[in-house]
Prior knowledge:
- 56% of the residues lie in helices and 5% in strands.
- It is built from 13 helices and five strands.
Amino acid sequence: MLRTKTGRISLPTPRSLPGTGSPKRRYGSFFPGTPLPAVPVLRPTLWAFAATATIYLGCAAYDVRRDVQNAKKKGYFRDGTVGSYEDLEEAKRRGHTRHSAARAQPQSRWHPPGQLGAMMAGYSDAERLVLGAAALNIGLLGANYLAPAVFTQHFYRIPVFSPNYTLLTSAFGHNGLVHAGMNTFALLSLGPEVARSPTFEGNGSHFAAFYLSTAIFTSLGDQLATMLPTRTYRLNRFSMGMGASGVVMAMMGALFTMYPDAKVGIIFLPGSYPMQNVAAAFILFEMYGLFVGFPRLNLGHGAHLAGLAIGSAYVYFDGRKRIWRPARQLAFRCMKRLNGL
């Protein structure tokens, strides 16, 4: 499977951009010789944890509800109530819920327009989410050209100025067709492999929670990296960042941890290489880029390193058992008390 180096692009940004109009958010001003504005840390960090908890709990509640509905359709819980979470898990183990780690073989025939459901029937929920995220990246690129003022305000992130929610939205913004194309290509190459892995087992809700949360924390990592004593320390906090490459790097980190001895090919490079060697090369490249920098190569090295760390840690420490399962249990208890099951 081909891999590509993708970049979370950081561009020098003036206070306002041509064609963007007057921003609704007051950004303030900075003049050379005056003290540098501080990079916000506490508020975006608290927002990141709160948003991640909300995302995981929401996805878990949706997942539990669908499991219950499918189990009831198969003849379980005929009295209309689910006794306990363990009962629901037992129904899953006996094959009476929708999830399956195995991917069904897609039909080979051509599907005319209007039959999207039939065309997607051969893919797991998580794989469909990967395709949807790729389509969203390309679709928002078109929005960038149609409404640059709105897009710049809500999908670009400047560490010292931008509101907290851009930690998430900036992961879906791209500054051009090449940028969006490379990230989308990498997402389509890596995403299905990660989605089918034992960590996610084709579960779209789990994969969605991981994807969105990783987008938030890689953006936060990119923001915190602007405080490090790098060569461009004084300018990084004014750089504009966007892109899905932090999430792509998280998927790489997950694959590196799951299959360290597997060999992979890298686009534009001949041969194949062990994943553990590729991982070491990526880390060295990103560390050098973060602290020293590459001429005329503006990448979000902080977001990339955060993504590699998050993806590796999620697999190594078994995020499915330590994070996703407790989130499902909490969602089940809350929905049970609210009579939502």
